[in-house]
Amino acid sequence: MAANRRHVLAGMGATLAAGALIGRARAAEPGRKFGYAIVGLGSYATNQIMPRLKDCEHARLVALVSGTPEKLQRYGEEYDIPATHRYSYADYDRIRDNPDIDAVYVVLPNSMHAEYSIRAAQAGKHVMCEKPMAISAAEAEAMIAACRQAGTKLMIGYRSQFEVHNLHAMELARSDALGQVRIITSEHGFDAQPNQWRLDKPLSGGGSLMDIGIYSLNAARYLAGEEPVEVTAMELTDRSDPRFATVEDRINFQLRFPGGALASCVSSYTSNHNTYRVHGPEGWLRAEPATSYTDHQLWVHREGRTEQVRLPTPAKNQFVAQLDHLPESIMAGTEPRSNGMEGLRDMRIIEAIYQSAREGRAIRLTA
Prior knowledge:
Distance between the termini: 32 Å
Structural class: alpha/beta
Number of strands: 15
């Protein structure tokens, strides 16, 4: 797999696929829903993404990609996907010849994100890729370059950026409703169960930071509304625990922002967290659970009073809104909100967090 990935990353000189122009034209046809091929039929794809496509205004499920024939048959029958639209990893590149597929949604182990995103772009298809975008900033840059060369869109699956409580928290934090933001705390973690690909570094690229800690990082960034300029980090992992033979357990990291805010973040595979807080001189907000699939709650404290924020149920939940956003951006001719640069920024900071924890020093961040 590594050799194959290197080959794909090295092959960035591939010319623009003729199918890309056809695919973009078809995506803009009035009344036609945008066609997604789901790449990887694991739990997140089958339990969270695929069931939501039926609720989309602009998107639909048209194809499946998996290395497991039984899954292709089972989910193909469940979602009425014809055999002609079911692909193995070996014949994945044949998506080029299927005009029903406008984009792929890559929901594979992290180490496979770059390869299958780049091959999709070279086949003339738009790309939605799960976070973390890749296992290195270099791979993320190659993904951006491939989509740019092919003229296709690249979007990263930051679903929380489409969830109403998170959007409201962003608005409050950035509008100075709490005064100038001074302190952000962002904590995400869970007790990781053994024998899963997330605990295998060649597949995951890292431990809790690559998996759940990216929520702490991305939330700190979107709440601050600017990019950090410095990071410090500390790791603590019990290497006698067989789960952590190749990946880390806990990382605490701090981010310094140019506007004066400090963020303290937690990433953990042995404790349960799903919360963030924002503090300013005029008050604070707290979200818990902050970035879960459901049941979000948000409190705001101002003028000596703490109130829970009650928001109306949105027409689209975070999954549906995210899935519809890619075709909406294509029709509007704009960049997706959570585009490839958003994913690349997280990857660069993640690399700096690992470096800081490894070297025991603060790491300056560049734009």
